[in-house]
TrEMBL record:
<feature type="transmembrane region" description="Helical">
    <location>
        <begin position="433"/>
        <end position="461"/>
    </location>
</feature>
<feature type="transmembrane region" description="Helical">
    <location>
        <begin position="353"/>
        <end position="370"/>
    </location>
</feature>
<dbReference type="InterPro" id="IPR020846">
    <property type="entry name" value="MFS_dom"/>
</dbReference>
<feature type="transmembrane region" description="Helical">
    <location>
        <begin position="75"/>
        <end position="94"/>
    </location>
</feature>
<feature type="transmembrane region" description="Helical">
    <location>
        <begin position="329"/>
        <end position="347"/>
    </location>
</feature>
<dbReference type="InterPro" id="IPR011701">
    <property type="entry name" value="MFS"/>
</dbReference>
<dbReference type="Pfam" id="PF07690">
    <property type="entry name" value="MFS_1"/>
</dbReference>
<dbReference type="InterPro" id="IPR036259">
    <property type="entry name" value="MFS_trans_sf"/>
</dbReference>
<feature type="transmembrane region" description="Helical">
    <location>
        <begin position="391"/>
        <end position="413"/>
    </location>
</feature>
<feature type="transmembrane region" description="Helical">
    <location>
        <begin position="200"/>
        <end position="219"/>
    </location>
</feature>
<keyword id="KW-0812">Transmembrane</keyword>
<protein>
    <submittedName>
        <fullName>MFS transporter</fullName>
    </submittedName>
</protein>
<feature type="transmembrane region" description="Helical">
    <location>
        <begin position="7"/>
        <end position="27"/>
    </location>
</feature>
<keyword id="KW-1133">Transmembrane helix</keyword>
<keyword id="KW-0813">Transport</keyword>
<feature type="transmembrane region" description="Helical">
    <location>
        <begin position="292"/>
        <end position="317"/>
    </location>
</feature>
<feature type="transmembrane region" description="Helical">
    <location>
        <begin position="158"/>
        <end position="179"/>
    </location>
</feature>
Length: 471
């Protein structure tokens, strides 16, 4: 394939990646307006956000497996069209059932593109360019994850909420046409596809139970006996899923992919990093607007330090990864994370805003330099590239969900510890309690980064030992 065509295809897949990830968060800011227009309660309108995330996580592995057998490009292109169609239906929706159905269609298309984009990139680029190519794509994905509220706010400033969805239609069509013209005509990798019905059923219920635990636990508390029961049920379903996958002829996931330590620890470390990233999404807006009393515009500008630095550091990190290895770059990037986490643990309202800007900028730099996708895909054998890409996307979405739950729960637990009473909202009468809760939450985030450092240290030591044995 011509080098020019490779970069056109990379841009096409990255645009679709950006749209499918930003749609997980862009709707949040429009929920109040949607609930008023559709005459529904806010907690009912929240399902517009939840149904998208839950269905994507349920369908990712299915389409990863399917793409390994009938062709990744085909799944990606069909998914792009379905996502565009779902976006159009969302924009045209006039009641809650209609928009929920349209969001389900969107999630179907998004899961097809998320499950295949990484493996397509590794197919069309030579191994010595995987880092920079996946780094370029990662910058779109990561910016999409954190830019939703800002982009949504800009759209809502001038247009109504329907255009949050309509904007995807022309962009998606252009991305599809670029791919249709430039994608190589790939052949299916096998002549059949068998659905692992027991595995898919147990996995789907497991994911649904996991999200029910997350969403309900945030309302009633994770110490509630009902939530503890759901946690136990989720662990039981995980065990059942693994048991089934070891015994069926065509498993949903060939568990041999996890025999590679670099792949398994790469997924776990990526989940930890994405979870830590959501601490900023949840806690920082409160701190900037409610504690420091900054305007939403000023707070938004400060928070833009993360995506702005991320855009530049992701492809740069990928370029370096192509030369020294994705694990090494990611390992070094994790140490950069430590600096902003320490700043956020000790920051006080009397400190200069420059400290927050520096912290967020370093977080964005580290987030982009952390080469989770090249690390994950590089440790998956060629026959596992499709399912590896879907597992990587699943890890990202689960990491964000875990981060959302942890950030919220730890923040209010820390506030409660400081105040000596249970608190589940911003303590207006005691703003210092909030600062104490924030410091507590970021202390846990720091420990999560340290765990990720430990995981990658084990991978690097293991690789060095193998290399020394072969010399």
């Amino acid at each position: 394939m011509k080098q020019q065509n490779q970069w056109i295809l990379l841009m096409s897949t990255s645009i679709v990646s950006f749209m499918s990830t930003i749609d997980a968060s862009i709707v949040n800011i429009a929920i109040p307006k949607i609930s008023r227009d559709l005459s529904v309660l806010n907690n009912q309108a929240e399902w517009i956000v939840s149904i998208y995330l839950v269905l994507i996580c349920i369908l990712l592995l299915f389409f990863g497996k399917l793409s390994d057998q009938i062709g990744r490009v085909k799944i990606f292109q069909i998914g792009t069209l379905i996502f565009v169609g779902g976006s159009l239906l969302c924009g045209l929706s006039t009641n809650l059932p209609m928009i929920l159905g349209a969001r389900a269609v969107q999630a179907l298309g998004a899961s097809m593109t998320m499950a295949t984009n990484f493996s397509i990139i590794t197919d069309i680029f030579p191994p010595n360019q995987h880092g920079i190519a996946l780094g370029f794509n990662s910058s779109f994905v990561q910016v999409g994850n954190i830019a939703g509220p800002g982009v949504g706010g800009l759209i809502l400033t001038w247009l109504n909420w329907h255009f949050i969805f309509f904007v995807n239609v022309p962009i998606g069509i252009v991305a599809y046409l670029l791919g249709h013209h430039f994608f190589p005509k790939s052949k299916p990798q096998s002549g059949h596809f068998r659905v692992d019905v027991p595995g898919f059923a147990s996995y789907s219920v497991m994911i649904a139970t996991f999200f029910l635990t997350i969403f309900w636990g945030q309302v009633v508390g994770f110490g509630d006996l009902r939530i503890v029961g759901l946690m136990i049920l989720t662990l039981g379903l995980i065990s059942l899923f693994v048991w089934i996958e070891h015994r069926v002829a065509e498993p949903l996931i060939d568990l041999r992919v996890f025999h590679n330590l670099g792949f398994t620890f790469g997924i776990l470390s990526a989940m930890l990093v994405y979870a830590c990233g959501y601490f900023n999404n949840v806690i920082m807006p409160f701190y900037l607007q409610d504690r420091l009393l900054l305007s939403s515009a000023t707070a938004g500008l400060i928070l833009m330090a993360v995506p702005m630095l991320n855009i530049f550091s992701a492809p740069t990190g990928g370029y370096i990864a192509d030369r020294i290895g994705a694990e090494k770059v990611s390992f070094y990037a994790l140490f950069i994370f430590l600096v902003p986490e320490i700043i956020f643990i000790f920051v006080q309202p009397k400190w200069s805003l420059l400290w927050l800007v520096i912290g967020l900028a370093l977080f964005g730099t580290a987030n982009g330099a952390f080469q989770n996708n090249p690390m994950i895909m590089g440790n998956a054998a060629p026959e596992f590239q499709g399912v590896a890409g879907s597992i990587a996307a699943l890890g990202r979405n689960l990491g964000m969900a875990i981060g959302l739950a942890l950030a919220t729960s730890l923040l209010y637990f820390g506030i409660s510890l400081r105040g000596g009473q249970k608190t589940t909202t911003y303590p207006d009468a005691h703003p210092d309690w909030f600062v104490a809760g924030m410091h507590f939450a970021y202390t846990i985030a720091l420990s999560m980064i340290l765990i990720a450092i430990g995981l990658l240290a084990i991978v690097l030591v293991k690789k060095r030992m193998v290399k020394n044995k072969t010399l």
